[in-house]
Amino acid sequence: MKKFEYYTPTRIVFGKDSEKETGRLIKMYGGTRLLIVYGGKSAVESGLLKRIEDEVKAEGIEYISMGGVVPNPVLSRTRQIIKEGLEFKCDFVLGVGGGSVLDTAKAVALGLYNPETDIWDYFAGIKKPVKSLPHAGVITISAAGSETSDSAVITNDETKPYSKRGINGDFNRCRFAVMNPELTYTLPKYQISAGVADIFMHTSERYFAAILGNHMTDEIAEGLLRNIIKYGRIGVDNPSDYEAMSEIMWSGSLSHIGITGLGSRGDLPKDGDWACHQIGMALSAIYDYTHGATLTAIWGSWARYVCKKNLGRFAQLARNVYGIEEASDEKACEIAIKKSEEFFKSIGMPISLTELMGRTPSDEELTALSENCSFGKKRTIGAFMVLSYDDMYNIYKAAV
Fold first, then answer.
1. Would 3 be classed as within a structural domain?
2. Share of the chain above pLDDT 70, in %
3. Tens digits of per-residue pLDDT, 379-397?
4. For 339-352, how does the pLDDT look when each residue is reduced to its tens digit (9 = 90+)?
5. Rounded to an integer, what distance in angstroms lies between the CA atom of residue 153 and that of residue 151?
């Protein structure tokens, strides 16, 4: 194992009816004036929001609830919620929903603690955040792992083209995460599939790191990949299978808690590679596509583009995750990529831009995506292989 530092302060409350603990937990962490952030009508129609509000009232906690968070959460709504939260003088933020809601709740908590700073200045890298208001989550979608990560991502919908940015730090850590797999039963199958894909990708991004030789970390990552491949398929086919949905939910949290990338960071700003996420984020920013689908659409073209940097790493994926007995690293690498794409297709995810978009993107669109991803040719991405603007364009082109 290489040198690393690991910090995971989030309390996990997992299992059936765990949302009944929400009010008690908020009070335990000092919340007295609560801002509840949620997405659309499902939280209301399912009765979950009211159940949460009843638990909060029973603990004597004052609250306001604000919905309207959309997939690929936007800056404009985040600013509106911050404004309302400041007027209410809240001291705790609770996200009720999936990764988009949790990311918004994190951004809101940061904005409420630092009202003198425009929230986008943090995401644009103009200012460095240090601390935010205490926040937590009740999880209804297994995907982003935002409940256990130190990450948050917001799309600036006030610029043309839109830009999607993320920030990381301990200020983004939830105080607690309430996780009842039964809350995911009513999700559309496509949303479950996209979540499963995101979980696979969070693990893959850390697995394909620049710094290797962390064998226990590899064992954890490979086990998680095997688990999400097995139970992801079952959950997509039968969303009311508690065993499958609980395995998917916990895999989502573990995939983004950092444990599958321990020792791979060194002097780098992040553990792992994360090029696929950056390439996919440009697709979400410009076209508002579902995050998990953008990742599967480009993963194969990314993998084929970078694999020669370390064929043995892809061969290890083939042998330890897919059980492929192949002596040649080059052939095993080929098989690993094909097996991964077969998995994506089996859960209904696209494996090309043409499938994602329902048409063939133009060269002008590929250029615009590469410009967006490279911040106007001003940044590189990736660690397994560092990618320039030209590399990004070539990967988008290959994904057609």
1. no
2. 100
3. 999 999 999 999 999 999 9
4. 999 999 999 999 99
5. 7
**This prediction's pTM:** 0.95
Give the chain's domain count: 2
Task: Examine the domain organization and report whether 108 and 88 are in the same domain.
Answer: yes
Distance CA 134, CA 230 (A): 36
What is the band of 131 on the pLDDT scale with cuts at 50, 70, 90? very high
State how far Cα 180 lies from the chain centre.
18
**Residue 40: pLDDT above 90?**
no
Looking at residue 140, its amino acid is: T
Whether the per-residue pLDDT at 267 is higher than 90: the answer is no
Domain shared by 121 and 200, yes or no: no
The reply to whether 352 and 379 lie within a common domain is yes
- Among 193, 171, 359, 353, which residue's Cα sits nearest to residue 280? 353
Domain extent for 353: 189-399
DSSP state of 366: H
- Are 198 and 179 part of one and the same domain? no
Helices (H), ranges, the chain: 22-28, 42-45, 48-58, 75-88, 99-113, 119-123, 189-207, 215-237, 242-255, 275-287, 291-306, 311-320, 329-346, 353-357, 363-373, 389-399
The answer, yes or no, to whether the previous bond of 181 is cis (omega within 30 of 0) is: no
Residue finishing a domain among 183, 203, 220: 183
Q: pLDDT tens digits for 145-169?
A: 999 999 999 999 998 889 999 999 9
Here the CATH number for the domain that contains residue 329 is 1.20.1090.10
Mark whether 228 and 274 lie in a shared domain: yes
Q: How far apart are CA 363 and CA 365, in angstroms?
A: 5
Structure tokens that stand for 348 in this block = 């209904």
Cα diameter, the chain: 65
Flag whether pLDDT at 41 surpasses 90.
Answer: no
